Amino acid sequence: MVGFLEDARIVLIRRGESVSDVFPEWTKSAFNANGDYVPFDLNMPSTIRKRERIEDFLLDPPLTNIGSHLSRQLGLSMIHEVPTVIYTSPQLASIQTGRKLLEGIPVGVGWNIEPGLASYFPVGTECPKFDVKLKKDTVLKIPYINAILGKETLEEFQRRIAHVISKLDFPLGESTIVVAEACVIDAIIQSFIRNGKALTQRQMASLEKRIPCLSMMHFDVKDNGKWRMSAASLPGLLSECDPIRNIPDVNFLVRPIFDY
Predict the structure, then answer these.
(1) How far does the signal peptide extend, from start to end residue (predicted)?
(2) Can you give the residue ranges of every domain in the chain?
(3) What is the residue-wise DSSP string for 86-97?
């Protein structure tokens, strides 16, 4: 609940730091000859769930211990702006980020995994296969997402994200969090803030630097569906890490003028 808020507030959060962010080829050293997981760094989770192939961990990596800790701390910081619900993509790092946010938030909050918020995978690239069991209705279904990943054009991906966001429930007077990858956050901003204007390829190449892990962007949505940037600011992680690391380049994302 957000005091004195008339519009619906949407907070976009990029998922926390993943093991692949820190150790790009970590699977080469993290599994023994028997295929058992053996972490080689204190920033790696002590255990991970079994998967059919070791390669699947690179396609859909877990959070680091630091990513988990800071996600929970971010939840703790939301005491003055408690969300009504959290939506996450079906990717493991986003799900774990949502779970840790919930651990930190001081009151009960709804949580929905929305398969339609899955990232963009260029045509022909190897993609994860999601197997999360969902108890609630979703805009798109897991089998459908598994079938289209790696077959969508970028424009089709952007239309998918716009469709999913337009179908989600954002109650007036309440705050809702969406946790996803940087490309999903940009697709949302493109559709609802930039009036469909896409980034250039050079601009897309810098996207993950523009939207750091656990960075947040606030938008207010009127009852007519019109989005606008919000002046609201949730408490940052000033006591936990360098604040520069989780501040998004909002001006660039909203008005991408320069090709850099």
Answers:
(1) none
(2) 8-18+63-254, 20-62
(3) EEE-SSHHHHHH
Query: Which of 45, 48, 106, 47 minimizes the C-alpha distance to 73?
Result: 106
User: What span, in angstroms and rounded, lies between the C-alpha atoms of 260 and 200?
Assistant: 9
Helix crossing, 92-104 with 65-76: angle to 10°?
Answer: 40
Query: Is 73:99 a contact under the CB 8 Å cutoff?
Result: no
Question: Which 3 state secondary structure label does DSSP give 240?
Answer: coil
CA distance 178 to 207: 18
User: Looking at the domain that runs over 8-18+63-254, which CATH code has it been given?
Assistant: 3.40.50.1240
What tens digit of pLDDT does each residue of 44-75 get? 999 999 888 888 999 999 999 999 999 999 99
Q: Are 77 and 236 in contact (CB under 8 A)?
A: yes
